[in-house]
């Protein structure tokens, strides 16, 4: 028995795995293309960069694969519409949107033929998305890394959403290995979105110290932070987190990015994420999922996906044999 294919509108992924779009510049072209090349869906992070940078990143990925490529853009971004329009102009396959909700996005998707996939954390929002024309929804629970829209576990929300809508449902948050994938599919999800596991790959273009923080993480290193976006965020404990908690990180900064529609100015989220990507753990914020401590190695994307698929298939086949 093979894993089910993931159908999102007119798109069909050979395996039901979506690689999360992690910003800033964590999910870039080589990572997204490598996942797409293996039959999954690769997402480029479109937040925290300019429209021209995003368009260049999409073109770079398209040169590496003919697989399914998407972008993940925060609705809270000040240039949200421009980023969406730029992605559509470059022939992106789908747009995943979180950190807010945009009704206009669905009209843009219908006009362009690009599949729209909002991130939701409730059955109510999933039903609204379906009515507006969403091709699928990503159900994200509290276990996910980065900005969170809920404090509820993914599995709890997943059950409610699968009962409420007829479009494909993709589960996100706390999914690390093939056993997680098998369990999530058995719970009714049509696919999974995984971010943290793909950070610890050779194709992910972050500094080695960023990946090492993942590999060395313990359960207690998963922490919640206050983000200027106005949402809580899940990160890993590092020097920046300790400085933030002690009040050493100054507020009221001069903004060089104007990246958010509304910013609390607690600290500069873009600057801190870029610093982390470059390996500066004193000034850099490292987003990561709650289950990151279960990641123990850095592998090529191809090997990660083979491991995920083999384990998930084995467990699903065992379950099928028991049912027979």
UniProtKB/TrEMBL annotation:
<comment type="function">
    <text>Nitronate monooxygenase that uses molecular oxygen to catalyze the oxidative denitrification of alkyl nitronates. Acts on propionate 3-nitronate (P3N), the presumed physiological substrate. Probably functions in the detoxification of P3N, a metabolic poison produced by plants and fungi as a defense mechanism.</text>
</comment>
<keyword id="KW-0223">Dioxygenase</keyword>
<keyword id="KW-0285">Flavoprotein</keyword>
<dbReference type="InterPro" id="IPR013785">
    <property type="entry name" value="Aldolase_TIM"/>
</dbReference>
<protein>
    <recommendedName>
        <fullName>Probable nitronate monooxygenase</fullName>
    </recommendedName>
</protein>
<dbReference type="Pfam" id="PF03060">
    <property type="entry name" value="NMO"/>
</dbReference>
<dbReference type="GO" id="GO:0051213">
    <property type="term" value="F:dioxygenase activity"/>
</dbReference>
<keyword id="KW-0560">Oxidoreductase</keyword>
<dbReference type="InterPro" id="IPR004136">
    <property type="entry name" value="NMO"/>
</dbReference>
<keyword id="KW-0288">FMN</keyword>
<dbReference type="GO" id="GO:0018580">
    <property type="term" value="F:nitronate monooxygenase activity"/>
</dbReference>
